[in-house]
């Protein structure tokens, strides 16, 4: 992996981890399209990827720092007094705790079985097309539910805990390369009557502990002797991923105030179809 390839992958991580277009899918498909001979099982590459994810997590923490301060205070206060009461920050905190547990369990039991999909561009492209269909279907159902006479959107503070758990579970599908974590959780949020803005905010807040925990668990990969060969790329790439991710979440929070998922669905459909066609023709392998 050259330094330029490393930086391009860092930018790709910062964008595709938060945009609903699947970072795992693009990490598989773009190197294949560009003819990069990267061994994704090599310890040096895995250490580099850990640094990119750590940078993304830092960007999310920095962007939502005020939210996290209130959430953590609310969680501690609710534990001390033994009840949540009417504290919206405490309630949001427990929604995030409940929503994170399904993904954590899925990651423990399903991560290794789904790794076999990473080596097949055709399969990844198929999942990317499926990701587009999920977003189209979610927006379609949303428009039907929000028709004349429909009930108003539900504030995030009033989201039931069971719904928070189901939105968290939807993130588990992102273990499949080509299925977007943010896309799946935003669609799930829309189906539970959240606005696009609240669904995106809850999705990004949910992603923060998931990405941070994954980075911390994999952090020892950065300490092995083989990782020293990519230390400069890892540090620079992590910083670049953080900057790109911060810009991405800043854009998306504004975007979802008045827009929906369909443009991302069209992108995934077109890009996935092109990649699937090339994979079936053995142009990319």
How are the SSEs placed, and which strands pair?
Blueprint: H1 3-16, H2 23-34, H3 43-63, H4 65-81, H5 88-114, H6 121-145, H7 161-170, H8 181-191, H9 196-218, H10 231-255, H11 262-280
Helix pairs in contact: 1-2, 1-3, 1-10, 2-6, 3-9, 3-10, 4-5, 5-7, 5-9, 6-8, 6-11, 7-8, 8-9, 9-10
Structure description:
The chain is mostly helical. The chain has helices at 3-16, 23-34, 43-63, 65-81, 88-114, 121-145, 161-170, 181-191, 196-218, 231-255, 262-280. The longest helix has 27 residues, at 88-114. The relative contact order is 0.21. The mean pLDDT is 87.
**Helical proportion, percent range:** over 70%
**Mean pLDDT over the residues:** 87
Cα end-to-end separation = 18 Å
Largest sheet: none
Low-confidence parts = none
Short key terms for the protein model shown above:
single chain, 285 residues, mainly alpha, 11 helices
Quick overview:
With 285 residues, the chain is mainly α. It has helices at 3-16, 23-34, 43-63, 65-81, 88-114, 121-145, 161-170, 181-191, 196-218, 231-255, 262-280.
């Amino acid at each position: 992996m050259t330094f330029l390839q490393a930086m391009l992958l860092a930018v790709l991580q910062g964008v595709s981890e938060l945009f609903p277009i699947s970072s795992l899918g693009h990490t598989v498909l773009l190197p294949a399209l560009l003819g990069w001979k990267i061994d994704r099982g090599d310890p040096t590459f895995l250490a580099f990827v850990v640094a990119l994810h750590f940078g993304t997590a830092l960007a999310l923490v920095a962007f939502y720092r005020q939210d996290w301060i209130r959430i953590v205070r609310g969680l501690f206060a609710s534990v001390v007094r033994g009840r949540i009461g009417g504290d919206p920050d405490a309630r949001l905190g427990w929604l995030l705790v409940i929503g994170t547990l399904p993904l954590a369990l899925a990651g423990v039991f399903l991560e290794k079985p789904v790794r076999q999909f990473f080596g097949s561009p055709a399969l990844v492209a198929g999942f990317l097309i499926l990701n587009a269909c999920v977003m189209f279907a979610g927006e379609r159902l949303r428009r039907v539910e929000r028709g004349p006479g429909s009930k108003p959107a539900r504030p995030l503070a009033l989201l039931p805990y069971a719904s928070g758990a189901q939105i968290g579970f939807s993130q588990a599908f992102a273990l499949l390369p080509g299925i977007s974590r943010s896309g799946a959780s935003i669609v799930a949020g829309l189906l539970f009557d959240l606005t696009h803005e609240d669904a995106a905010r809850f999705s990004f807040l949910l992603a923060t502990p998931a990405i941070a925990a994954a980075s911390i668990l994999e952090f020892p990969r950065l300490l092995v002797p083989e990782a020293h060969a990519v230390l400069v790329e890892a540090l620079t790439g992590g910083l670049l991923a953080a900057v790109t991710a911060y810009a991405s979440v800043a854009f998306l929070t504004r975007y979802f105030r008045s827009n929906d998922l369909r443009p991302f669905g069209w992108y995934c459909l077109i890009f996935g179809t092109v990649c699937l066609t090339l994979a079936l023709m053995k142009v990319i392998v």
